[in-house]
Every structure is written in C-alpha cells, then in structure tokens.
Amino acid sequence: MTITSPPDLLERAFLGRPARVAVVLALWAALIYVTSLDCGFHFDDLRNVSDNAAIQITSISPAALWRSVSESPLRRPVASLSFALNYYFGAGVAGYHVVNILAHVLTAVGFYLAILSLLGSAGLAPRLAPWRHTIAATAAFLWASNPVHVQAVTYIVQRMAVLAAMFAMWALVAFFRGLAATGRRRALWLGAAVVLWLLGMTSKETAVALPVVLVAGLALRASFARRWYGPGVIGLGAAIAGTGGFAAVMGAGGTRSAAARILGDQPELLWTVPRSFFYHWSLFLLPLPTRFVLFHDLEISTSWFAPPTTMLASVLLGAVVVAPLWLARRSLVLALAVAWATWTFVAELVVLKHNPVFEHRLYLPSLGVALILGAGIAWLRDRWRPRWISAGVAVIVLLMGVGVLARNRVWVDTVSLGLDQVAKAPGRPESYPDLVIKLKELGRQDEAERHYRDLMALPPRRRMDPYWQGVTAIGMGESARAIPLIEGVLVQESGQCKVLGALIEAYARTGRMAEAMARVEAFREVCDNPEVSPWARRLVASVGGFYEDELKARLQSQPYDVAALVSLAGLLLNRDKPEVALAVVDKALAREPAHVEGLTNRGFALLDLGRVAEAQESFERAIAARAAYANAYFGLAEARERLGNFAGARAAYESFLDRADATDPFREDAAERVRRLKDAR
After folding, report:
1. Which of 374, 418, 543, 576 could form a disulfide with 505 if both were Cys (CB 3.0 to 4.6 A apart)?
2. Contact 675/643 with Cβ under 8 angstroms?
3. Per-residue CA distances from 342 to 170, 244, 339, 346, 546 (Å)
4. What is the rounded distance in angstroms from the CA atom of residue 394 to the CA atom of residue 399?
5. What value does the mean pLDDT take over residues 88-95?
C-alpha cells in the first residue's frame, strides 16, 4: 500500500494535533456508553461479581486483596482485584460500569497513540508515516464506536477483555517510546512496557500474543534486510504455536482442562473454529443491530465436510494465519496488524466452550483489523475525493455510536435482554431460561408460559440443549419433567458441575432424596478440586437445599428467599415434620402466593396433618396457577379420595398421568389407584 499525496488541510489543522484528537475520542467513547450505567448484572456477573464472596472486601489490606485474587472463581488476578476495589469503594452496579467505560476509553486513546508511535517509528512504515494521524484517528474512532463491543464493555465480567486490551495498547505506547529514547529513559520505558504487558496477560491470557507480534515484526524486518529467511520463519512459527498453546492452556484452566477441552470433551468444536473465526469478523465488519445477540445460532461442524463450508473456512484460516509472512515484505505494518488480529483470535477460539460465537472475543483482536481499516481509508482519501471519504467515515462512526446507545438499552435487565434474544435467535435453548424464570418472578405468568412452551417444543440440536430445557422446567415448577432431560446430558457431560447441580435440585424438589444425596457425593468428588472448589461449595449450598443446615444458614442471611423456604418445606415433609413444613411454606407463600411448588407442598403438609379440605383447596390453587403441574394433580386426587369423591379422585389421577413424565416414580402408584377406583362408589 503506497500513499503519495501530501497531507491535506484536515490532516494538518486537526488530525495533526494528537492531544486534541485524544480528548475528543475519549469524550465520544464515554458518551456512547453512558446508557450502560443503569444496566444490571447478568449471567456470569452473578458468580464472578455480585455473588462472589472473595471480592467483597471491607478493607484494602494486603490480606484482603490477596484473598480477592486467590479465592475468586476468576482465573484472572488483575480483573478480580479490580472487582474487589469496585466493591470496596461502593457506588453499586453503576460503579462497575464506570470502571468498564473508563477502561474502554483508555483503550481507545492508547490505541490511537500506539498507532501514531508505530507509524512514526523509523523504518517501520515509511510509506504510511505522513498519513499516520489520519490512519490513527480513523482506526481509533471506528474501533471505539463499533456496537460489537457492547458485550465486552457493558457485560461487567468481560472487563477481563477490556483490561487486557487497555494494558496491551499502553504497553505498545511505552515500547515505541522506549525504542525512540536512549540510555536510562529507554530502560524505564521498556521496563514499563513489560509491566503493562504482564498486567494485560493477567487480565486475559490472549494478551500473550503482544510480544510475539512485536518480536516477529522486528525479526522479519531484520531478516529481510539480510535476505536470510529460513531460521527466522521456523523460529517465528514455533513462537506462534507456543503462544497459542500457552493461551489455550491458561484459558481452559490448566493443562488437564485444556487437554480435555481440545482432545476429548467436545472435539467437534475444533472443527467449528475456522467457521467461527470468519463469522466473528463478519460481525465486526457488518455491525447491523439485527445481528447482535447473546447466543448466535452457528451450526456446529462435525467433520471437514459437515457443513460443506468447514473445509473452505479451514483452508482460508490457514492462509490468514501465514499471511503476515507474505505481507511483511510489502508492508510490515499491515503484517503486524493481520498477525495481531489473527493470532490473538485463534488463541481465543481454541478454547471454545458450548457456544462457538461470543461477541466479546473480538474486543482485543479487532484492534488489528481497525488498523487495517484506517490504512485502507487513508489510501482511499489519497485517491478519491478526501472530503467525501471523511464525511462518510463520520457518518459511519455516528451511526455506530447510535447503535451502541441502543444496544446498551437492551442490556438494561434480564427481561429486555431475553426478549431481544428470543426474537432474534428463537432456535437457541440458552435464550429462554433466565427470561422465563424472570417473567414468572415478575408475575407475568402468561408470557412465561408462552416462552416456556416455545422452548420445550424445540428439537435438541446440541449436547447441552436438553439441559437448558431442564433448568427452565425446574424454574417453572416441573422438576419431574426436568430429570430425564438433565440425566441425558449428564451421560455426555459427566464432569460438568452445573449439570450435576441442576440434577440434584430436580431430585430434591421431586422428593427423590436418596438419589439427590448420591448425586451430591458425585458432585463433590468431581467438582471439589483446586481449580473449581471456591465456587463448587457455593453451588452445592445453593442447589443442595435439601441439607437442612445449609438451607437454614442460607435463610439466616436471606430470610424471605422463597425458593429456599419451599425447598426446606419439602425436606421437612420427607422427614415427617408436617407442622414445621406448613409454617415454613406459609412464610414463602406470604411473599409469593401463586408459587406452584409452594402451594403443592402446603397441600401435602395439610394432608399429613389430616386437614384434607384445606389440602384440597391448596392443590386446586396450585393447578389454577399452573394447569400443567403434574404433582398438584396427584395431591388433589389423594385429597378427593380421602373425602370420598372417588370419581373426582380418579379424574385427578388420570390428569396426573397425562402430565407426568414417563420416568416419574409416582406413575405406577397413580395407575394402580385409577384401576382400583373404577370399582369404587
């Protein structure tokens, strides 16, 4: 790429003043994210931030800060430390967003200054150096305004990616300052670059690619000057492979987890990496509002030819990975940009989990693509109507900023995010659980039921699809229906703590206490290891509600936790303590009168106490709240039978059989009672 014309008036009057551009860039980047300040906690925010006891420090002593790092479920120390300081200084959820926005602003400004330093370094980009201000400003504004970054900036826990990019960009600034300095100042600048890089890598491991890209660029420049390519290329390839492997191991949580993830746990996800690579970049390059969702519906590849685009994407990805070696002889800056975009992103994708596409993965790698876009736009301005090109870029930046503002409003709460998700990707089961359960909690029962029916009608296409259906069924009070769904997933995902936890909860809620206890032992055996034990104990405490002491401890801090009260009532019923169970469940129903499992547990407690008419009324209320809840029909049938209404009892047992899952342990008893009641008068 060669740019020949001299800088124009815009270049000299405005873009040639870095401080002025940096201030405008910072204000713009902050302005478009101001609508995120009242967005709540979502998904992994709960485990890693709002409910993370390790970061809830009351002092900034070394011991407290060390605990926030060492005991946090996050494996990224700098990010954990930042969350702990957020908690200590208060300001609620808005405080977390302020820090995320500030980090995004500093990343954008650091990116701008890093490009200026890169293009101004002697010998690195002689053809682009005169246009460095245009390239830097264009790239920085396009990158900072792209709506694809909302998931990284507004989703609080993804501060990891934002911090990694921020430290990486300022490490580049320090590095190039060090190259230009001499003596002691050079040592100080280069030392600062190393420290900043380490901070970035301990925020997110993919920042490890930064020194590889820099060393590769400098080594290639030197090797081209000497025409001695072989050893340099071989060494560079080894460095790339080693860096990618390190990032994969760290991102997967250690060598054992990485090996399981890459070789055995879900090998088909490796086939999906090439297609996922190009799908991600299409989101960055074509950031239309309709394309942004939490769970993208990208089909999993199962071989080179399924789907057919897998082979083509694999070949293209291989070409992109080695492209910097070819580009370096023509434009070292573009080679570095492609290397940064590709190598950091491949390291992200190697540790794919169940979802092959997440927008926040683009945050760090997309800096390289933004540099390429900036250089391309400068090349266009050099050849065709610069004012029109500048105006077009300004319009694009403005439209993307509006897109950021709008997308932030989607992230404001669970319902708005869930409704947006199911509207754009109705085929993904992950889209439904939080939405359905939250709608139920808000009393929007009809909406919850409608989305629940849509979810349960989806045919499973991925291994974890039945799990999402199962956990939603638990939230809707149909734990018996959830059990076979989750058990089927457990066969394939035997080491997954969240699958075991959900199955434990389903067993406990349906009274299958022996099976629940056995699963708890399996849970502790699988999950209680140094990598996950800090959160495994909390998970057992939350889903193992049938342990009376754990439930009571939970209720000491949250005395009106309806789910915990209902679970405790079920436990007390299984321990033949109906009077205490009735008092506990009445406390839950005072908070949530239409809680289906609570009304059903109340009915069984009244039956045990001989208050049959009241029990019948409680079961009828449960059925009125949810006509599909099978357990309430069993209780209603038993109450009617005791009251002598044999025809009504038989009808209720038949209703139970129509609704109960095929594996429900009470089906055989209900069928026997139907046969017996046929002759009853």
Report:
1. 543
2. no
3. 20, 11, 5, 6, 49
4. 9
5. 89
Alpha-carbon distances of 606 from 118, 129, 573, 586, 640, rounded to whole Å: 76, 83, 10, 11, 13
**HSE-up (13 A, CA, CB side) for residue 662:** 2
Of 119-123, 175-179, 420-424, the poorest mean pLDDT is in 119-123
Q: Are 91 and 111 in contact (CB under 8 A)?
A: no
Mean pLDDT of the region 214-224 = 66
Q: Do 300 and 352 meet the contact criterion of CB atoms below 8 Å apart?
A: no
| Pair of tokens at residue 66 | 């060390």
- Distance separating alpha carbons of residues 464 and 486, to the nearest angstrom: 9
Residues 553, 554, 558, CA angle at the centre, nearest 5°? Answer: 120
- Give the C-alpha separation, 255 to 260, whole Å: 9
Q: Which amino acid is residue 545, in one-letter code?
A: G
Find the DSSP H helices in 209-357.
Answer: 209-226, 230-252, 255-259, 268-285, 309-327, 332-350
Q: Which residues, 6 or more positions from 602, have their beta carbon under 8 angstroms from its beta carbon?
A: 569, 582, 585, 586, 589, 615, 618
Angle formed by the axes of helices 497-509 and 479-492, nearest 10°: 150
Pick from 538, 536, 596: which is nearest to 563 by CA?
A: 596
Give tens-digit pLDDT for 450-492.
Answer: 999 999 999 988 888 999 999 999 888 888 899 999 988 877 6
| Cα gap 573→575, rounded to integer Å | 5
Summarize the confidence of residues 173-199 as an average pLDDT. Answer: 90
Q: In Å, how far are 74, 159, 472 from 348, measured between CA atoms?
A: 16, 15, 30
Is the pTM above the cut of 0.70? yes
* The token pair that represents 52 in the structure block: 């993370």
Residue the block writes with tokens 């065709």: 384
| CA distances (Å), origin 262, targets 247, 259, 268, 472 | 13, 5, 9, 29
- Take residue 193 and report the two structure tokens written for it: 């670059």
Residue 42, Cβ neighbours under 10 Å: how many?
20
Per-residue pLDDT tens digits for 350-374: 655 567 889 999 999 999 999 999 9
Query: What tokens appear for 588 in the block?
Result: 């839950």
Q: Count H helices, E strands: the chain?
A: 34, 0
Residues 255, 157, 532, 546: is their CA dihedral positive or negative? negative
Q: What is the DSSP secondary structure assignment for residue 10, as one 8-state letter?
A: H
Which ranges of 5-91 does DSSP label H, i.e. alpha helix?
9-10, 18-31, 44-45, 62-70, 77-89
Q: How many CB atoms lie within 10 A of CB 578?
A: 20
Of 519 and 440, the one with more pLDDT: 440
Give the Cα-Cα-Cα angle 520, 522, 523 (nearest 5 degrees). Answer: 60
